[in-house]
Amino acid sequence: LKSIAFFAQACWVRVREWEVGPNRAMEEGYASHQYEDSIERFTTYEDYLDSQITHQDRFYLEEDDLARQLVEIGCRKGEVLSREEFAARREAAESAKKARLKNTPKELASAQKDLTDFPFLRQLAAREGLVGSGKLSTIIFIRDKNAKGQEISGYIDYGHRLKTENFEPYFERKRRLLPRPSDLSFYNWDTQHSTSNESPNFQIMPDHEQGLLFKNKRDRKVINVDPKEPTPGDNSKRHDIQTTEYIQVVIFDHMTRKKS
Fold first, then answer.
1. pTM of the model
2. Is the distance from CB of 204 to CB of 184 less than 8 angstroms?
3. 144 CA to centre of own chain
4. Using CA atoms, how far apart are residues 132 and 153, in angstroms rounded to an integer?
5. What residues have CB less than 8 Å from 222, skipping those under 6 apart?
6. Distance from chain centroid for Cα 250
7. Residue 105: helix, strand or coil by DSSP?
8. SS3 of 45, please?
9. Most buried one in 29, 75, 184, 231, CB count within 10 A?
10. pLDDT of the chain along its 260 residues, tens only?
11. Which residue in 157, 65, 52, 167 sits closest to 106, CA to CA?
């Protein structure tokens, strides 16, 4: 009987509040906004209802289910979300959280690395953010010796490598960036083994007269890597890197523009 009487009294008080003082009830209802702002704290609708049950409710009602009904039908100060409203707001909160995480800038692999004495790595670090964001496309030509002492060379799509592997070991000088058979092009001068592959950013265009050409898939511009050419092409620049880290390093930068 005490639980029924308490239930009825709570609902009568709620109705009375809106009859004699709707403004006051609305002011007290602002406390409910804390639940909206932190809706993700609650895994289920029942958890949300439980958070608004008082010790007095439990003392008089003795049953959590009855106490939840008291909250759900609105016999409480402030706004109480319905089950449908709770589900909608929780879904919206989850979507907002995912959007925030997606838009959070990722820390660069080169961040906080001392590259003072390593010119090539400094050049990679300077381009990491632009290449990673797709604003700049970069091809790296490297000629050096592998672990077996064999001379190798090749063209590397820097953007593709950045997306497919962790570059921190390179900037920490625990690993050396070298061409692979899976890169744009690869040649082993000792074994005569050669490969060529397209990447997400570049298409290979062999030319008997001009040699090796790379077409950017974003704006369809062609990059000519022939050192005899005065320029590698539209919106492209060639940079010969003076370094003792490798036998030879050349960087080709291409400012990408969407095809109109």
1. 0.62
2. yes
3. 34
4. 24
5. 205, 213, 214, 215, 216, 233
6. 30
7. coil
8. helix
9. 184
10. 444 444 445 454 444 443 444 444 444 443 434 444 567 788 888 888 877 777 776 666 666 777 777 777 766 666 778 888 888 888 888 888 887 777 666 789 999 999 999 999 999 999 999 999 999 999 999 999 999 999 999 999 999 999 999 999 999 999 999 999 999 999 999 999 999 999 999 999 877 677 789 999 999 999 999 999 999 999 999 999 999 999 999 999 999 865 54
11. 167
Q: From CA 210, how far away is CA 226, in angstroms rounded?
A: 7
Q: At which residue do the structure tokens 């609305």 appear?
A: 26
CA distance 127 to 120: 11
Structure tokens of 3? 């639980």
Q: Is 182 exposed, middle or buried (0-12, 13-18, 19+ CB in 10 A)?
A: middle
C-alpha span between 257 and 158 (Å, rounded) = 18
Taking CA 213 as the corner, what is the angle to CA 210 and CA 219, rounded to the nearest 5 degrees? 130
